Amino acid sequence: MKSGKLNWDDLKGLINNNKSVKRDEVRVRNGVGEDCSVIDFGEYECVISTDPITGAAENIGRLAVHVNCNDVASCGVDPMAILVTILAPENTTFEEINDVMKQIDEETSKINVEIIGGHTEITSAVNRIVVSCTVLGKCISGKAVSTAGAQIGDDIVVTKSLALEGTNIIVNDKIEKLKDVLTKEEINEAKEYINKISVIMEGKVSGKFGVNSMHDITEGGVLGALWELADASNVGFKVYEDRMPVTAVTKKVCKVFNIDPLKLISSGSMIITTKNGEELVKLLMKNGINSTIIGNITNDEGILVKELEGEVIVPQPERDELFSI
């Protein structure tokens, strides 16, 4: 099998064929496109998400924190606690593991999330450090927003710029190939993208505003995330290539490696669907967050309107473009 997420049909079968127990307390359970589970504890409910970092060599501690906290924030919920598992190959030094934990501590300090447990192990099962985290959040019962809530006619809003995470990873890991293509200022800009990958603020603002669904954009890029959201909500979508917010630096990096920024891992951006996209865009801007309406939820297939080719059907996502480099 190739690196990256499992084929979506295989993944759906894997999930659906292994649900022997279904407890009444679980309000939102696992499914393709649903990054969080929600457990009802009466007055409050607990929102939980887990993810590893496998596609980056640099900043893995920082990425692990935000990728997982972003999932919880996509429910409109403040992340409050994190558990950390670090698996390191046999040649790893203590200083390297300590550096990863320092990154995790620094990033959780910024967003007021407590490290409450985890596991650290040296093992021959991996050939580089792998970090996997589980994040918990709490909200009033019934208030968590799911991926599966998109409704026909909703505006589709994306926040910030797409492929920030992917661009940052590529520039850090492939600097030798890019240093003659990008200016020093562009390299610095790409490295600063690591500071923009949290979506906690837009999650909080949108949750209070009242939206139908939210989904953070990770592996598979914006097109993969749209497909996941549509599949979870049993709807379609129509989005426009010329409305997609992609920075000039990201376009340059993607051109060098002949990859599509719309299919590149994009932590730092969130998809939000709502009946009133223009008002949400204004509210997000008041809170310092740029956002763009890229299309609408439909009752048909997922469609991308391309500048040169016209309307094309968006297929189920394959592995992220990052793994093609």
Automatic annotation (TrEMBL):
Gene3D superfamilies per UniProt: PurM-like C-terminal domain (3.90.650.10), PurM-like, N-terminal domain (3.30.1330.10)
Superkingdom as given in the UniProt entry: Bacteria
Residue ranges constituting the PurM-like N-terminal domain according to the UniProt record: 33-138
Residue span(s) of domain PurM-like C-terminal: 152-302
Gene Ontology annotations of biological process type: protein maturation
Family to which the UniProt record says this protein belongs: Belongs to the HypE family.
Protein name per its UniProtKB record: Carbamoyl dehydratase HypE
Organism: Clostridium fungisolvens
